[in-house]
Every structure is written in structure tokens, then in C-alpha cells.
Amino acid sequence: MAPEMDQFYRSTMAIYKSIMEQFNPALENLVYLGNNYLRAFHALSEAAEVYFSAIQKIGEQALQSSTSQILGEILVQMSDTQRHLNSDLEVVVQTFHGDLLQHMEKNTKLDMQFIKDSCQHYEIEYRHRAANLEKCMSELWRMERKRDKNAREMKESVNRLHAQMQAFVSESKRAAELEEKRRYRFLAEKHLLLSNTFLQFLGRVSGAGESKPRPPESVVRRKGCSFLPLCFLYG
Amino acid sequence: MAPEMDQFYRSTMAIYKSIMEQFNPALENLVYLGNNYLRAFHALSEAAEVYFSAIQKIGEQALQSSTSQILGEILVQMSDTQRHLNSDLEVVVQTFHGDLLQHMEKNTKLDMQFIKDSCQHYEIEYRHRAANLEKCMSELWRMERKRDKNAREMKESVNRLHAQMQAFVSESKRAAELEEKRRYRFLAEKHLLLSNTFLQFLGRVSGAGESKPRPPESVVRRKGCSFLPLCFLYG
């Protein structure tokens, strides 16, 4: 086979191999790591919930005291704010789970067979066409040696097969490249979507933190008792 | 003892009891829950690090491909952004650990003994003063019955002790109230500090997300291959 066709063939096979042996296992691993990430997030979310429930209870005790109702209000409000933040963050996590992890998981499973089939199909088709071309070329060589009157017809046939082969290897390479690019683009786009959802969450939370009447430190100083650096503990 | 003094005494003791039996155990529990929260955060941080390292590796593979260098750059940049975010978040966590949890832990340990001592000291002092006053009052009653010439002097002494007792119970109640308020204020102020540190982090991150040349979705569409809804997986 002509060296440039062989080159095309090897490049195309290398792309399929890279999807099968690098990209898909990496994506499979990413799904596993992503599920660990999700579990860790849920554990954190639960720890935060328990911590701020405890803060709320202390706040409610303060509300019942004769001295610290306003401090109690602040503590209860802090606990509420944290709950809202947690439920807002859930949206990001749902995006991560539903739009990213589940999609990646489904894709890798289906893609392993799909890419294996595409690769095998290409390999068979290439070998079939190459064998056919080789056969016609040696037939032509035999005919030319024998000065066969059909040699001219056979030469045309060989030229046609050669042109078809060239078109086939070049189109197949483009198709494989498209498959490769599509997979990396899928990964990048899905993560950009996640990243945008996270930025929207951050914008909402930090915007709410700036505008909403959250308890400023001055309230504690103004409405709480005056701040005296006394006693050995609570200055 | 006069009912209003008894009332002061019971209120003051109730405040000490509330600090000893409610506030301090609640703070101790909060330290425990806070340490769980920290552990969960570190686990999440580690899971994120591992996940985005895997993304980086895939990005580096894409950089070496003939088709997806720009997508590779985006994936690597995403991984970098996540690392910066994680190390920024570490500042919040250090505040939580150093300025809040460690402080709370030290305080509850020392405070248990301090408040117990203050309460006992008050109780002894109150009983001592009350007994002394009672003794003088019955002495006065005895003297008045006997029309003792020193009764007038004793009456003055009883009045003085009574006034001192009144000042003592009222000052002691104010002191106990101050202790209570100081403890709730400590908790509220420490959490406001944490909340402000967190808001600063959110402001920094969402600000950076808006201004910094992070990879916009349009780059993927413009520089990646055109978006064709084909094949059964990666549309």
C-alpha cells in the first residue's frame, strides 16, 4: 500500500485507540471520582446542617434569657441564612449530578462499544479495500507483462480504486478526528455549564449577603452589652 | 429573708445554672460538631482536588491530540481555577478553626470551673450575709422585747446590713447577667467574623469569575468543531 495511505490508516487507528484506551477509561474514572465528590459534598452539607441546628438551639436559649434576646435573634438568623445557602448550593450539586455525572456515566458505557465497533468496521473496510486494490494491481502487472488487450481497462479500474481508497482513508480520518473532538468538547462544555451554575450561585449568595439586612457586627456592639476587656475568658 | 432579696438570689442562681447547664455544654457540643464540620470540609476539599487533577490529566491528553488543543487548554484552566478556589476557601476554614473552634474549646474548658467557682462564691457569700442579717434581726427583736437600751444601735446596724445586702444581691445579679450576655455575644461575634470572612471569599470568587478571562462557552463553540447534533452519544 502507498505510504501516505498507510500513514492515514495509522493516524486514524491511533485516534480510535486513544478514545478507547485513554479518553473513555479517564471518563469512567471521572464518574467514579465525581460520585466520591458528591458523597463528600452531602457529608459536608449534613455536618453544616447539624452545626447550625446547634447554633439555632443556642439562639433560642438566648431568646428566652432576660439579657440576650437580640443576640439570640442574630444566632437564629445566622442559622437560617446557612440553611438557605445550603439549599441554594443543592442546585449546583443537582446540576453536577444530573447534567454531568449521569450523562458522563451513560456516555462512557455506550461509547465503549460504539467506538470499538467503529474502529473494527474501519479496520475491516480498510483491509478489504486494500486487498482488492492489491489484487487488481498484481492482475494489472500480470496483464501488462503478457501485453493483454484488457490491460488498459484494468489500469483504469486500478486508478478508480486508488482514488476511492484515498477518499475513504481521508474521510475516515476526518470522521475519527470529529469523534475525538466531540468527546473533549462534551467534557469541556459540561464542566463550563457546572462552572456557570456555580458562579450564578456565588453571585446570588454574595449579592444577598451585601444587600440583605443580615446582622452587622455593629448591632452586636450597639445592642449587646458594652465590650469590656475583662474576665479571663470572654473579653 | 425579704421576698425581693430571695427573688434576686433565685434569678442570679438561675443565670449561673443556665450558663453551667445549658450554655457551656452546648458550646462543648458545638466544638465537637465544628470539628466534624472541619473534617467533612477537608474530605470535600480532597475529593475536589482528586477530581480536578483527573480533569487536568484529560486536558493534557487533549493538548497532545491533533484535534482538541483548545479544549485541552480550557480543561487545564478549569482545573487551575478550581485549585485557586480551594486554596481561597482554606482561608475561611482556617478562620473557622483558629478564630472560632479553638477559641470556643479553650473557653468552655476554662469557663466550666470559672462559672462553678463564681456561683459557689456567690452562694456562700449570700448565705453568710443572710445568716448574719437574720441573726441581727432576731437579736433586735429580742432587744426590743426586753426594751434594751442598745436596741436603737442594733436597729441601725440591721438597716445598714439590709442595705448592704440589697446592694450585694442587685450587683451580683447584674454581674451574672453580664457574664451571660458576654457569652452569647462571644458566640455571635465569632460567627459574624466567620460569616464576614466567608462573604469576602464569595465576593472575591464571584468577582474573579466575572472579570477574569475564564473560558466562555462561546470559545468552545467558536474554536471547537461546529456543533452538530449527530451520533447517538455526543451531540
TrEMBL record, chains A, B:
Q: Which InterPro entries match?
A: AH/BAR_dom_sf, Baiap2l2_I-BAR_dom, I-BAR_dom, IRSp53/IRTKS/Pinkbar
Which segments constitute the IMD domain? 1-235
Pfam families, per database record: IMD (PF08397)
Originating gene: Baiap2l2
Among Gene3D superfamilies, the record links this protein to: Arfaptin homology (AH) domain/BAR domain (1.20.1270.60)
Positions in coiled-coil regions: none
Output the GO biological process annotations, alphabetical, semicolon-separated: plasma membrane organization
Source organism (scientific name):
Rattus norvegicus (Rat)
Please give the name of this protein.
BAR/IMD domain containing adaptor protein 2 like 2
Q: Which SUPFAM superfamilies match?
A: BAR/IMD domain-like
